[in-house]
Structure formats: C-alpha cells, structure tokens
C-alpha cells in the first residue's frame, strides 16, 4: 500500500494518540471529539490491516506495531518540520545578486554608490566579483548573475544596457602644477613622466592610450611616448597621486579622486579624448529579472544616467 493513499487526518490523530496514549488527550489537542479520534485510528488500522493499540476498560496502550509506526511517523514529521524551517529561512534571506565588474570601476565608481542603494532601495544581498571574464549572466531563482563590462558592443549571448560612454584626459597631483615645469599646454608634457595603463579587454580591444590623446591634441610629434606602463589602473593612479607622473585617466574611475582634490586636470576641460569603449550592463538574454534584481537594475541605470548627464556631459561642454 502506498503511503499517499493513507488518510492524513488519521495519521495525525494516530501520532497524537500515540504520544499521549490517550484518545481523549489527543482529541483535546486536535480540537475534535474522542469518538472522532477513535474512528480515525480505526480507519487507519483497517487500511493497514493491523492493530495499533491494545484497548482495555481503562484506556489504550500502543502495541509493538503501533510503537514502530509512531517512531516512523515521528521521524517523518521531524523531516517535514526541518523542511518547513529551511523554507522559512530561505524566505527570510534576501535574494542573492552576483555582480562582476572591472576591478578599478568596481572600487572607484560602484562601491561608493552601493551604500546609497542599500539605504534607499535594498532588499537584496550583493556579492561582488572584481573580474572581467565574459561569463554569460543568468537568472538564479530569486537572484541573478550580472556583469558590467568596458568594451565595445554588441555583446554576444546577452542582453545589454549602455551605462555611459567614456572620455580620457590627463590628471596629476596638484604639486606638479606648482613646480618649475608648468603645465599650460599639451606640449609641456614633454617635460614630465607619462604614466600609462597597458590594459587589453577580453574582446582583444586595447585601452586607448597616450599616443591617441597626444595626436588628438596636436603634439604627437613633440612629446615622447609614455615611459612607464602598468597592467593595473590602480597602480598608475597611485603613482599619479604620489606626484611621480601624469596619468591619462578615464572619468568614471577618476571622478572621486578629482572631487577630493588629490588629483587635478592640468588642462581643465580642454583636450578631452572620447573613448570608443563604453560601460555596459550585461543581463540574461531571455526571461524577466526577479523583483529585487529588477530594482537593482533600475537603480544602477538611474545612477549611470545621472553620472553621464551631470559629469561626463558637463565636462564635454566645458
């Protein structure tokens, strides 16, 4: 006989009666009459073809078959209770979003803004992966795996949202502007050490460098190519902050350092080189984002639009 064919109410009545060895106590706990408990257990015994209780004038006692069944039912009820508790715990936990992004972008643009998301929106746990691998995003139950990439679309096998474009310009420590070799025009860079990030994307696209900027500024034949190259953006920026050279920076990752004053733009808003690369949010190509993930995506797109409008656009007009 299959367990699913057994009457569940009868099993419940038996479990309670077995615990107390009293139909009356079981009835009180279940909110029914003792007669109803007796009928349900009788029904169960008939289905099983065995007796579960020894009945006598003063009450009932479990027999050996009844004790074994009670033990098995208790074990099953414990598993059910554990399953219910696990489900409740999963419901209490916030959905998980795994977001990968280039290390410098994550550290210098995204992380300073996440506190605002937690305060104003929240409702989701975010795991950050500082990488540039092209792992295909995926929805994961109530969560998701998304990616921010710096490159050139279209991106294969995903749906993408443009966050903002990019532009490049020289930055340096304020102390360099106070030294003898002043920085008034691009040709003055010939008297300074140029720092460059030798970075290449997973798409095989090279990060726009000093040579392109110098040629756009009309001094490609007057200024020596960069003397120092770094594989990590942060290393080059640390050297620029320390006054050891002039770096060609991009706006999203240099903005906070410019606002804090540890870096300055020697030529102000002049001589800006538009980058052919963009920052894009990559999401799964099909299906809908879970509600909490959708709120994060909306927040990120709004933050990016505000940055694009208020920062990059303002610099381009200056």
Topology diagram in text:
Layout: H1 8-20, H2 23-30, H3 34-48, E1 53-56, E2 59-62, H4 64-92, E3 96-101, H5 103-120, E4 125-130, E5 138-140, E6 143-151, E7 159-164, E8 167-171, E9 194-197, H6 210-216, E10 228-230, H7 233-241, E11 246-250, H8 251-260, E12 273-274, E13 278-283, H9 291-317
Parallel strand pairs: 3-4, 3-6, 9-10, 9-11
Antiparallel strand pairs: 1-2, 5-6, 6-13, 7-13, 8-11, 8-12
Helix pairs in contact: 1-2, 1-3, 1-4, 2-3, 5-8
Q: Could you characterize what this model shows?
A:
28% of the residues are buried. 43% of the residues lie in helices and 20% in strands. The protein is of the alpha/beta class and 318 residues long. Strands 3, 4, 5, 6, 7 and 13 form a 6-stranded mixed beta sheet that branches. The chain has a 5-stranded mixed beta sheet with strand order 10-9-11-8-12, sandwiched between helices. The chain has helices at residues 8-20, 23-30, 34-48, 64-92, 103-120, 210-216, 233-241, 251-260, 291-317; strands at 53-56, 59-62, 96-101, 125-130, 138-140, 143-151, 159-164, 167-171, 194-197, 228-230, 246-250, 273-274, 278-283. The chain has 9 helices and 13 strands.
